[in-house]
Specification:
Layout (H helix, E strand, L loop, with lengths): L9 H21 L4 E5 L10 H4 L2 H8 L17 E5 L1
Antiparallel strand pairs: 1-2
Length: about 90
Amino acid sequence: MGLGAGGLSDVEARDVGIGDADQGVALAWAEAGIRVNAVAPGYVETAINAAGRTDSAHYQRIADRSAFKRWAAGGYREPRCLSCKR
């Protein structure tokens, strides 16, 4: 795993960047009456967290934090969805 901005992991840096982009677009388009929403699925099953997911208590603790009470399936290229509407 490489390092992103400010010593963050690549994944953390990407998520911070996407979150800032969501907010930037929302602020830029607010005066035009366009609402911007971003959704992230929460914890995603990846090779990086495979070892931690073998502990069922840990897995459930994390799952309980999400809206759907489960981890998102792996394979996401980008775990956020940006929606804009007037």
